[in-house]
Write a structure and sequence with these properties.
The complex is a heterodimer of chains A (460) and B (469).
Chain A: E1 3-14, H1 40-43, H2 54-66, E2 74-75, E3 78-81, E4 91-94, E5 101-107, E6 115-125, E7 129-135, E8 138-144, E9 151-157, H3 164-181, E10 193-203, E11 212-213, E12 219-220, E13 231-234, H4 239-258, E14 266-271, E15 276-282, E16 292-293, E17 300-301, H5 304-312, H6 318-328, H7 333-340, H8 343-357, H9 363-372, H10 382-395, H11 400-413, H12 415-422, H13 428-440, H14 446-459
Parallel strand pairs in A: 13-14
Antiparallel strand pairs in A: 1-9, 1-10, 2-17, 3-4, 3-16, 5-6, 6-9, 7-8, 10-13, 11-12, 14-15
Chain B: H1 8-16, H2 22-40, E1 43-46, H3 48-63, E2 74-78, H4 105-112, E3 116-121, H5 155-162, E4 168-173, H6 179-185, E5 188-191, E6 211-216, H7 219-229, E7 259-262, H8 272-287, E8 291-294, H9 300-318, H10 336-349, H11 355-378, E9 381-385, H12 403-407, H13 412-416, E10 420-428, E11 434-441, H14 446-459
Parallel strand pairs in B: 2-3, 2-4, 7-8, 7-9
Antiparallel strand pairs in B: 1-3, 4-6, 5-6, 5-10, 9-11, 10-11
Helix pairs in contact in B: 2-3, 7-14, 9-10, 9-11
Classes of the chains: A alpha+beta (460), B alpha/beta (469).
């Protein structure tokens, strides 16, 4: 019997809005002194109320739109009730049955026609952070509320992944989209992007059709063979580790299943040092969060024109841009891929092409220069890059035959130098280059001259 | 007449004419507090120093000709409003040591309007109740007869006004907590439309219903206070940005042609004495030109069920933040009533029960709102008794977990529809306990409600009777 992984993914993305989700406190908390970015609202003090951050909600909807989601015209916040020391109100403001976006999809490249369905994209607030340490010689747990109330977007997929590689590709793509939207830096190390895969195994039936479209053209999956358990893995802080954790988990679960048992439904942590997952919390049944509507925030009623206005503000997404680069600049997929990886680079490239046109420099030449010379879009302006390309090309306009003649003339006038060179005094070549340059009176690359000299002297 | 017996409008006139200073007015109130508190227990904290300081400041401003709307007028604040650097307990031992680092918007607006804060008044712990008997700081007594309850949860607020310990008070209502104690203590209590006054800094009981409002000695005073409190607050997303009318300017408008509805459903199980006085009041309104019409309304008993479920659900969530980590006292300090509500609310929100309780309650709430919408197409205002009875004896709420819901039965329907309403005194029982008339209208009809209440009040003499303390 062979098994196939069934993997779903929950990704949390911290938005880089100026202020927090429900108060005016700054979100720039990373590395700051604990409890300095706080107010009655994000402290959850009695009587303090949340007021929603409009920009954060718009960004959440833009993420949804970029993931091909539907945007319901009616939406609301809900309270997710649970006790934890880092949760000052005893509930988290989140979204339950009416998220800002749902029913989206992302197409993968490596697996032909593989589509990952996005179940929902919703908005919530981040929690505080527990710090365990020693205070006055005693073990103590401290709470830093600087992170409390920072806007978080949660992106939940259907359990559509069948391999760690697919998960990795999806994550790369998601991160790229988030960065294109400029709503988060999605830096894993700073906790701006957090991953929680849930993994289980099902029996593999190779003949079974993977998916089909129903009459309304919604992609459906056969419902049988859905595993009866689910293992969630937390504390993964890099894409590499997510792959490793999935590989580890599928092996672990396969062994259990092959022994005729069912893996326990639980939350496991990722141990970076030992490269294994370990049991954190057994979840025999779903936690009851007693969701109910957040009365402190009125529900949202969008108009279609508001949504289309947001849609119009979304920049060209990487997939589209890549295709366009291939078409417009007739470049290889490889070049387009590199140039569209980051929005900043893609825009830099196109700007340079625009300026280059005036000087008859083609896009390929520019792409070549950017990629081969590893040009940093942040450290040079497009116009400056064009100038430097012009300079480069001017240096190489000197005709090779002409150079040869000049070289022979210099040899003739400086026989000692030629002798020295032949005796192995390589450094004399610099002198010869200098003499040639005096004759040429045009900018020319030393390398080109060196080549000419060496070739001539080799023959002699 | 002692200065502490004055209304806001009388105080403002006297202060302006320099007949007395804010310091004298404030000291008169503080003296009355000292004389009456052992009997009444309206206050959890008395902020004498702050009051003196604010009064002196007000006098200075008055002498400079400053014309803030409530300048120099003493007020008591219900102890579920956060007051910066002043202990705020919600009458629960859980918050015994809680000193907020911020002011509720209501407190901020009052301070900007020039008030003098005398102290923080008693309530049922967390505003859970209609008696003040669930307060962890002892029950407040009714100034008309200290063997009786003042009502609640703004019992301390209403008693502080009725006993002339203050010129006016700020209370809060979720379902009856302003109007019912105002009725039992024989004073005026206004419950504005939900969203008319900011809840920021009001310790939440039911976030979807809570509403701050004034308790005062006259309808005009309520209008003056509402002018200060009403309006959009950037810190409360549920506040309305509708324009705030000058409520005090339309108080004397004629009632001619105003259609006032009376619903038989609101007289079910009402004390005969109360019934009589309400009928008399209706006749007076008719004499003032109002057209009295019978209206059929959804029986209030359905509102009790809806209210109970929504309220318990939200309470269980709103009290979750008192988890023993931040406020010094753990959850064992919750009283019986709070524990009962947390348990019931946790149950009604649990998966498998949510649809049966919370969701169903929301649906019935919509039906009740639609019922009022229909009624308000036929009438402009509805009147009835505020409470089915006059004040009940001390101890009545003990062992009656539904005491509050029953004594607030007649204000609950309008509460869950978020309507504007007022209690205005309309007579006394044979035991010399006050009886209250409620007048309520559609959302944002405060102007009309205050107008009708003022005309009624000015036609009658009930406001002139004072408890003999």
């Amino acid at each position: 019997m062979s098994y196939k992984p069934v993997i779903g993914l929950e990704v949390h993305v911290e938005l880089k809005t100026k202020s927090k989700m429900f108060c005016g406190c700054s979100t720039d908390y990373f590395g700051k002194k604990p409890n300095t970015h706080v107010c009655p609202t994000c402290f959850g003090l009695p009587g303090a109320l949340p007021t929603p951050n409009k920009i954060a909600i718009e960004w959440c909807i833009k993420i949804g739109l970029s993931l091909n989601c539907d945007i319901p015209l009616f939406s609301k916040f809900d309270r997710k009730n649970y006790f934890y020391p880092d949760l000052p109100k005893g509930y988290q403001i989140s979204q339950y049955d009416l998220p800002f976006a749902h029913n989206g999809f992302v197409k993968l490249k490596t697996d032909e026609n593989k589509t990952i369905r996005i179940r929902r994209v919703h908005m919530e607030e981040d929690t505080g952070k527990l710090i365990h340490g020693i205070v006055n010689g005693k073990k103590a747990s401290l709470i830093d509320f600087n992170r409390s109330g920072v806007p978080l977007v949660e992106i939940v997929t259907e359990p559509d992944f069948e391999s760690a590689e697919q998960v990795n590709e999806y994550l790369q793509k998601l991160q790229q989209i988030i960065r294109y939207l400029e709503v988060s830096d999605a830096d894993m190390e700073k906790g701006q992007m957090r991953l929680e895969p849930n993994i289980s195994l099902k029996k593999s039936h190779p003949e079974q059709r993977e998916e089909y479209r129903d009459s309304s053209s919604v992609i459906r999956r056969p419902q049988n063979d859905i595993p009866t358990y689910k293992v969630e893995v937390k504390n993964i802080n890099s894409f590499r580790f997510v792959e490793k954790a999935i590989h580890y988990e599928t092996e672990r679960q396969r062994k259990i299943l092959e022994g005729g048992k069912t893996p326990v439904q639980e939350t496991r942590g990722w141990d970076e040092k030992r490269q294994i997952t370990f049991s954190q919390r057994i979840k025999e049944q779903e936690m009851d969060y007693r969701y109910f509507p957040e009365a402190d925030i009125p529900p949202f009623r969008w108009t279609k024109s508001q949504i289309s206005r947001l849609r119009s503000q979304i920049p060209e997404m990487p997939d589209k841009k890549l295709k366009r680069f291939n078409d417009d600049y007739s470049m290889s997929g490889y070049y387009s891929e590199i140039l569209t990886r980051e929005r900043k680079m893609a825009e830099f490239f196109e700007e340079t092409v625009k300026i280059g046109k005036k000087y008859n420099i083609n896009a390929k030449k520019i792409a070549n220069t950017i990629i081969n010379k590893k040009i940093d879009a942040n450290s040079i302006l497009p116009a400056a890059l064009v100038q430097s390309i012009i300079k480069q090309s001017k240096k190489t306009v000197v005709d090779e035959e002409e150079l040869k003649n000049i070289a022979l003339e210099v040899f003739r006038k400086n026989p000692k130098a030629v002798d020295d060179y032949k005796k192995g005094k390589n450094q004399v070549i610099g002198f010869i280059i200098g003499m040639m340059k005096r004759e040429i009176k045009k900018p020319v690359e030393n390398n080109q001259l060196k080549e000419v000299i060496e070739n001539l002297l080799k023959i002699q | 007449m002692n200065l502490n017996e004055l209304t806001i409008s009388q105080s403002l006139v006297g202060l302006k004419k320099k007949e007395f200073s804010s310091l004298e007015l404030t000291k008169a109130c503080l003296r009355q507090i000292k004389n009456q508190e052992l009997k009444i227990n309206a206050f959890v904290s008395i902020t004498e120093e702050k009051a003196i300081e604010q009064a002196k400041k007000a006098d200075l401003l008055i002498s400079k000709g400053t014309n803030s709307p409530l300048i120099g007028v003493p007020v008591s604040i219900k102890d579920n409003f956060c007051t910066k650097n002043i202990r705020t307990t919600a009458s629960s031992k859980v918050l015994d040591d809680f000193i907020p680092p911020f002011n509720a918007t209501v407190v901020k607006l009052l301070e900007e309007a020039g008030i003098v804060m005398l102290g923080k008044t008693n309530l049922d712990a967390w505003a859970h109740g209609s008696s003040t008997e669930t307060s962890d700081f002892g029950s407040t007594k009714n100034p008309w007869n200290t063997n009786f309850l003042p009502g609640g949860s703004s019992g301390g607020a209403a008693a502080s006004v009725a006993s002339n310990e203050t010129v006016f008070a700020i209370g809060s209502e979720t379902a009856g907590s302003i109007r019912q104690p105002a009725s039992w203590c024989g004073v005026v209590g206004l419950k504005p439309t939900y969203g008319r006054v900011s809840r920021y800094g009001l310790i939440a009981m039911v976030s979807s219903l809570d509403c701050p409002g004034p308790i005062a000695k006259s309808v005009e005073d309520c209008a003056l206070v509402l002018e200060v409190l009403a309006g959009k607050d950037s810190l409360d997303a549920t506040t309305s940005d509708r324009a705030v009318p000058k409520y005090s300017k339309s108080l004397n408008n004629s009632l001619a042609g105003i259609r006032i509805g009376v619903s038989d459903e609101y007289f079910d199980g009402v004390d005969e004495e109360v019934n009589e006085k309400i009928q008399e009041a209706v006749k007076i309104l008719e004499k003032l030109g109002a057209k009295i019409k019978k209206v059929k309304l959804f029986p209030p008993k359905y509102a009790i069920a809806v209210y109970t479920i929504l309220q318990r659900s939200e309470v269980s969530s709103n009290l979750a933040r008192y988890d023993g980590i931040r406020y010094g006292k753990d959850r064992s300090y919750f009283g019986e009533e709070a524990k009962r509500r947390i348990m019931l609310g946790t149950y009604t929100l649990s998966s498998g029960y949510y649809d049966q309780y919370y969701n169903k309650a929301q649906k019935v709430r919509t039906i009740i709102m639609n019922d009022f919408d229909k009624a308000f197409k036929k009438v402009d205002l509805i009147v009835g008794p505020t409470s089915p009875s006059t004040a009940l004896p001390i101890g009545s709420s003990k062992n009656h977990p539904m005491f509050g819901e029953m004594s607030d039965a007649l204000v609950e329907p309008s509460t869950i529809a978020g309507l504007a309403g007022i209690n205005v005194p309309c007579g006394f029982s044979k035991q010399r306990l006050p009886i209250g008339l409620q007048i309520f209208g559609p959302q944002f009809s405060e102007e009309r409600v205050l107008n009708a209440a003022h005309k009624y009040e000015q036609t009658t003499d009930w406001r002139k009777y004072k408890p003999s303390l």
